[in-house]
Amino acid sequence: EAFNAAVAGAKVLNAFIVETPEHALAAADAADAARAAGEASKPLAGVPIGMKDLFATKGVQTTAASHILEGFTPTYESTVSQKLWDAGAGMLGKLNLDQFAMGSSNETSAFGNVISPWRRKDGANAALTPGGSSGGSASAIAARLCPAATGTDTGGSIRQPAAFVGISGIKPTYGRCSRWGTVAFASSLDQAGPMARDVRDCAIMLEAMSGFDPKDATSLDLPVPAWEAGLSPDMKGKRIGIPKEYRVDGMPAEIEALWQKGIEWMRDAGAEIVEVSLPHTRYALPAYYIVAPAEASSNLARYDGVRFGQRELPDGANLQEMYAATRAAGFGDEVKRRILIGTYVLSAGFYDAYYTQAQKVRTLIAQDFEKAWEVCDLLLTPTAPSAAFALGEKQADPLAMYLNDVFTVPASLAGLPAMSVPGGLDGAGLPLGLQVIGKPLDEQGVLNAGLAIE
Ligand code: GLN
């Protein structure tokens, strides 16, 4: 009875779109057999993980939480998931997410929103968002349904949900994890990464997920460092930059206080604190919300009712009408909004005014970071401007939703490694996250700073 109640409770969270216990059991059996045969243990031998439903999994439905991919069963495995299976992990199921990873609350999923296992302690009992887009991953880990999961991060989708539910998550340097077999949102920004209960588990997962892949033209041809072995919370000799432009107008006092606490922890761990300036920070969000939809509008052109998933074929419809009917029925509102914005900013009349400008801003933001690295080794900021909000609270207001990404998108635009780690609880007893941003390829520095905070 207790077991059944626990299962029912877990289902309320709606974290999984598909459950695949047989996959996880097979990995556990393989781990047992290897142990019995005296073979060396694999790094993730028998570990049951969750897989964000953005990664193509051979023989298991892959939807990106969109009706347009309902019933799509890939005949191939994404590089990242294959690497995890090669490391011995097994899959408990495919995790819910914002549709095509577009969103910050998991409310754009065609399979219903995910609920956070957290509740406010002040009596307000509205269900909370686990954040997004990797909301299923966040909720499943926070509820202890799985010890770790994959996430993807285009503008904060690993870091913000990790912050909202009090777990850790790292987006590595762009190119560390192969994008092959991952449903594309904005290809120049999309990056896979792990989410887990602590920094060490993130390091173990990231090692398994990373590595050169000739099938992804932007994959980095570099060896994967031994991040777990290199973990150390000692910050002696490290200069931690505090970007003054992240002190945005209207920042809640609790977020300020969290940041201050993080600064003290860094000092205690031996770091030197320096104030830095990233002058173009306030242009990051608008630039992101031009570049990401532009790339999305191009990437999502492939969902035409011919090659994947759903097809709507009204009586007597010609090809053009079939496309239109399929896309009208298959895509959710937020996805349509992004396609419209994307095609608009790429259109002949507006390309220079929007897309070209946004690309220039992107370069300026990357240069801001390069300048900062002259005086510091890592940056410390809050992960999000608030704790988890109630489901429905921002749903009607896309701009308020986009503002949630204000601290996470700059590192995405610059392709830098960035991590969120739990920093404590706010007055309502909800988790808050601190973000560490590192130089290109310095995942080790980021993980170590995360460990110092944890
Ligand atoms: N919330 C951001 C968006 O909606 C980021 C999403 C992501 O990182 N996948 O685009």
Q: Helicity level, as a percent range?
A: 25-40%
Indicate the structural class. alpha/beta
What's the CATH superfamily of the domain at 2-209, by name? Answer: Amidase signature (AS) domain
Number of helices: 14
Biggest β-sheet strands, sense, barrel = 8 strands, mixed
Q: What is the second-level CATH architecture of the domain at 2-209? A: Alpha-Beta Complex
**Could you tell me how far the N terminus lies from the C terminus, measured between alpha carbons in angstroms?**
36 Å
Largest sheet: spatial strand order: 4-6-5-10-11-9-7-8
- What is the 3D shape? globular
Tell me what portion of residues adopts beta-strand conformation. Answer: 5-15%
Q: At the third CATH level, what is the topology name of the domain at 2-209?
A: Amidase signature (AS) enzymes
Radius of gyration: 21 Å
- Let me know the number of strands: 11
CATH class of the domain at 2-209: Alpha Beta
What small molecules does the structure contain? Answer: glutamine
On the 0 to 100 scale, the average pLDDT is 96
| Low-confidence segments | none
Tell me the series of helices and strands, N- to C-terminal: HEHEHEHEHEEHEHEHHHHEHHEEH
